[in-house]
Amino acid sequence: MSLKELNIIPEPVNISPKEGTFTLNKNTLILTDLKSKVIAEQLKQILLSTLGLNIVIKEDLQTKENNNIIILKIINNEKQLNHEGYALIVSQDHIEISASTPNGVFYGIQTMRQLIPTDKIGSKNIDLEISIPCVVIEDYPRFQWRGFMLDVARHFFAKEEIKKVLDLMALLKLNKFHFHLTDDQGWRVEIKKYPLLTKIGSRREGTIKFGQKAIGKKKGFPIDGVPVFGYYTQQDLKELIQYAAERFITIIPEIDFPGHTMAILAAYPELSCTGGPFKVSTRFGILKDVFCIGKEKVFEFTQNILTEVMEIFPSEIIHMGGDEVPRIRWKKCTDCQARIKNEGLGDTRNLQVYFTNRIANYLVSKGRRLMGWNEILNDKLNENAICHYWNADLKQVLELARRGRNIVMSEMLAVYLNHPYVLISLECAYNWDPIPNELEVKYHDKILGIEACLWTEMVKNDYKLEWQTFPRLIAISETGWSPKNKKNFKSFQKRLEKFNQWLDLLEVNYAKKEEYLLYENQFY
Ligand code: ACM
Ligand code: ZN
């Protein structure tokens, strides 16, 4: 068996192909010593749904009755430095996946399923005999943060589609799902203390029509008149968090403050500098009206929301956005000016960091940690806050890393999946590396990892979501997991041909090579 024929994505750290094959059939047993049977059940489900094989699980590693076995086990291996790593051995009479954590065993299964010959997937013949090539694989991730962000504010996506995305992330060994839940165009999370957020903020009357002439400077572009609405109840979110956790994915909620808050201001205009009135935005871009940092009730409101968010989301890290905040209203607002004077902030430039630090301290007091887009940066920013890089000066990033700041990298011209393929090609997405060349090795661990982002202004449905995301997210998953010296775009393209057969089986509308440059596919 040649190395090439194994075709695994992301490319493992070490693969040693061996002679022979293991035969998987209806008599194969899964043996496990995992405390929870959930992972073994997941493997059983994979084999059932992809091959029609209904395999028995035994919670006992000592069983000797069968030499046709798949062993899932936890080992106490001090040398196994990486808690997400695993070893996968396929020999002629058994398959063994071992790791020091359940996460590792789960990732071993994701690799093992890719060893199933694709001409057999989708079969429902229970007498099937499937040959899995013998191999020894040792594997662990390059980065601890391997993320995907989905904006559900600009367009809403149902729970079932989110689960499909989580399934695909798991297959790619991605582990952070960043849920962009709020923005000017929609508020998508139930908050019991503030019911108007969903009653008013989760619905807009329509969306700006792209590609049409403006109807006047003041009036702007025409609106399509098609309402966009939807939100997740707290119960829905708990269900998604559980679903993600079973796939070793943490959901990081983002509640964007103090800008991108028009859906909040439509419901609670007293939180602005001017008092409104406002409506949920039907257009995109940066809006002038944001939270008033001078008013104490803004802090009370923000903390109350975050209190409920923390009750829903167990994630240590809470993303509070902080991007694209104009200061124009703050300049004229007496409350904001009084805050600047009383706190000795100098001018409006320091109002945002004042807000961010108060929120960061609040999160820290609850055992959590703030993350925000690079606009939150300021010399006075709380040390513990994680910077989410998207468009800052790279020199600033280098400086930050050298001073010890943790950073997650989402360069907007490399891993923003909303851009057309003509701007961010598959190769461009594949080749971008989150560690800047200029950064000294001793600071590399400050870069926690890579996150791809899908903003959905122009993504109205599941079909388009999948088209924009795949295959570029597949390429980015390899950057997140595989050693840099193992990356090779030609090899990736070849492996992708096989991977696409998995996407076909899972009914994913990925972009085909011949579609990348089609103009009509780049927009709606
Ligand atoms: C962003 O793209 N506004 C973070
Ligand atoms: Zn104000």
Note down, in words, how this protein is organized.
It is a single chain. The chain is an alpha/beta fold and 524 residues long. It has 2 domains: 3-139, Chitobiase, domain 2; 145-518, TIM Barrel. It contains 16 helices and 19 strands. The longest helix is centred in the middle third of the chain and has 17 residues, at 296-312. Bound molecules: acetamide and zinc ion.
Short description:
The protein has 524 residues and is of the alpha/beta class.
Q: Can you identify the CATH superfamily of the largest domain? A: Glycosidases
Q: What is the number of helical segments per DSSP (H or I, 4+ residues)?
A: 16
Provide the spatial order of strands within the biggest beta sheet.
Answer: 8-9-14-15-16-17-18-19
The CATH first-level class of the largest domain comes to: Alpha Beta
Helix content: 25-40%
Question: How many distinct domains?
Answer: 2
Distance between the termini: 44 Å
Please tell me the overall pLDDT.
94
- Number of strand segments: 19
CATH domain fold name of the largest domain:
TIM Barrel
Strand share of the residues? Answer: 15-25%
Radius of gyration: 25 Å
What tags apply to this protein structure?
seven-stranded mixed sheet; alpha/beta; single chain; binds zinc ion; 16 helices; elongated; binds acetamide; 524 residues; Chitobiase, domain 2; TIM Barrel; 2 domains; eight-stranded parallel beta barrel
